[in-house]
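User: hey, got a sec? need tRNA pseudouridine synthase B folded
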Amino acid sequence: MKRKGTGPDGLVIVDKPAGITSHGVVARMRRLAGTRRVGHAGTLDPMATGVLVIGVEKATRLLGHLMLTDKTYEATIRLGRTTVTDDAEGEVTATVSAEGVTPEAVAAGVAALTGEILQVPSKVSAIKIDGKRSYALVRDGEEVELKARPVTVSRFTVHGQRPATAEDGTPLLDLDVTVDCSSGTYVRALARDLGASLGVGGHLTALRRTRVGPYTLEQAHTLEQLEESFTHLPIGEAAAAAFPRWDIGEDQARLLVNGVRLKSPGLEPGPVAVFGPEERFLALVEEKHGQARPLAVFA
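Assistant: Yep! Here you go:
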């Protein structure tokens, strides 16, 4: 039986609107779920919209593992203009005509940014440098140099291209793209780097996340819908959707929840969701030296 005043154990898949921070969404969910034990699996910038996975109560312990999953984005990249933040919310630092950019050059630039690449994150990001967020250092006028990090861009496709014009009449070029990428990839950094490779600069003007791991927009609810009827995905269903599954019997379940490491049957790499009798979600484990090492126990 749950304590009075605690929320449901599960995930809430939110379709985040533009103009609100991920922390702002968490604050709304705390009020709706009736608990402060709420977190999210991967920040979306205020400008961005789409899938934001929120964990409530015990499901917050799933979030660190969900953050390792891949994601899908629909975005618009504007070529010919560079900004401080690599997106439309930052101050414009340069405007260059993109009139001479050809589809062939765009295709080559996109191909070079597809696969396993080294990416320098956006300076205006939440990455910490000596204990301070990079965006805070930039805001304070400090020069920030971030190290390149390995990320995987498994799909980077252009499915729309149209001319645009700057306020002073300079020809720009908008690209509508779809990106599948690993956690930690900055789509606005892809826009920046694509523009740089084409010699005209680039930034992001729109970003919508359509998938986080197995969770998609089809499962997502707007904040207005959640205000009317709070809906969550129970923790067992959430774990079954996100991780490989291992079903065990009553005796093994008893040992596992009491901290005993079970002999592994040859589990898939990474976290595995363990279920006992009657569909009871017990734990996340991973195989190590032939044993199932608990990552988090939920029973």
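Quick note: Residues 1-5 have pLDDT under 50 and may be disordered. Let me know if you need anything else on tRNA pseudouridine synthase B.
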